[in-house]
Specification:
0% strand, mainly alpha, 87% helix
Length: 62
């Protein structure tokens, strides 16, 4: 089960990728809805990182 503590960092990698994607779309002049979707996915990924981290730490203390 040690792989579960590394999975939470995958969410940060997704967040960085989608932030880069949003920046690239902004530079290309794409629509705001395309940029917003990438930013929303990045925000959800960061949220999932902290969610998984919280519960991983919670079960480690047991």
């Amino acid at each position: 089960m040690t792989y579960l503590k590394f999975i939470q960092y995958i969410y940060l990698i997704f967040a960085v990728f989608f932030l880069y994607d949003a920046f690239r779309k902004y530079q290309e002049g794409k629509e705001l809805s395309d940029i917003g979707l990438s930013l929303i996915i990045a925000g959800v990924s960061v949220g999932m990182f902290f969610f998984r981290r919280h519960f991983h730490n919670k079960y480690q203390k047991k």
